[in-house]
Design a protein that fits this description.
267 residues; alpha/beta; 5-stranded mixed barrel; 7 helices; Nucleoside_phosphorylase_d; Pur_Nuc_Pase_Ino/Guo-sp; Nucleoside_phosphorylase_sf; EC 2.4.2.1
């Protein structure tokens, strides 16, 4: 695995002369943030040997290299999910590769279903902790060059970046929620009892991504900042569709882009 990570990073460097400082993962319906990046280069996943390919609508499937908020970034316009049939190790492979491309921290976004009754569709929630119910990507032999066998997860999301984002949001007039994200396998949306169970367990929102990527990032010592866009309210008892999730994500994307940009400016 380590040689594949290094080989893929080397291939990308051979195609793109760029030294990213920050990695960004864009969730369902959130790929429009790239319109605000001063793009230096793009690279389709399908053109990278041995790289997974996005199969979900709303995930374009390419790396975007450029500048945002005065920082050099590499953005994943499309991520990979366990429910697509990828192994947990394949799901986090791009995070590993971005680390070897030189990123020093990771920004993550996702579309999720709210289970906190105080939330509303369209809210931005800064993730302060998570519950992972997706198979852990660290299962199997540990690669010491990547990180320790038993990584600490007492601070999965950087408190420093969260505090900085709160200040950015306050100045920009962007209302923020804070809470716990629970990552589940999908691909079904949850039953009402499952939504209730996740709320009882301490979750504020639920989704089908993010937690494996964060685990891999923390394994490698990367600070993480993550935001969920609440695209539907699970406890409301209404039917959920992927199209609605994409649409609500697009509506909130402007505020998320402003938050990410402002945070990057302050780094």
């Amino acid at each position: 695995m380590l040689e594949r990570i290094k080989s893929t990073a080397s291939f990308i460097r051979s195609k793109v002369d760029f030294d990213p400082q920050v990695g960004i993962i864009l969730g369902t319906g959130l790929g429009g943030l790239v319109n605000h990046i001063d793009i230096a280069a793009t690279l389709d996943y399908r053109d990278i040997p041995d790289f997974p390919v996005s199969t979900v609508e709303g995930h374009a499937g390419r790396f975007i290299f450029g500048s945002l908020g005065g920082k050099r970034v590499v953005a994943m316009q499309g991520r990979f999910h366990y429910y697509e049939g990828y192994t947990p190790q394949q799901v986090v492979f791009p995070v590993r590769v971005m680390k070897f491309l030189g990123i020093r921290c990771l920004f993550v976004s996702n579309a999720s279903g709210g289970v906190n009754p105080m939330f509303r569709t369209g809210d931005l929630m800064v993730i302060t902790d998570h519950i992972n119910l997706i198979p852990n990507p660290l299962i199997g032999p540990n690669i010491d060059e990547l990180g320790t066998r038993f990584p600490d997860m007492s601070e999965p999301y950087s408190r420093k970046l969260i505090a900085l984002s709160d200040e950015v949001a306050r100045k920009a007039g962007i209302p923020l929620q804070h809470g716990c994200y629970i990552g589940v396998t999908g691909p079904t949306f949850e039953t009402q009892k499952e939504y209730s169970f996740y709320r009882t367990a301490g979750a504020d929102t639920v989704g089908m991504s993010t937690t494996p990527e964060v685990i891999a990032a923390r394994h490698m010592g990367l600070p993480v900042f993550a935001v969920s866009i609440i695209t539907n309210m699970g406890l409301a008892g209404l039917k959920s569709t992927h199209e609605e999730v994409q649409a609500e994500g697009a509506k909130a994307e402007v505020r998320m882009t402003k938050l990410f940009t402002g945070l990057l400016e302050e780094l």
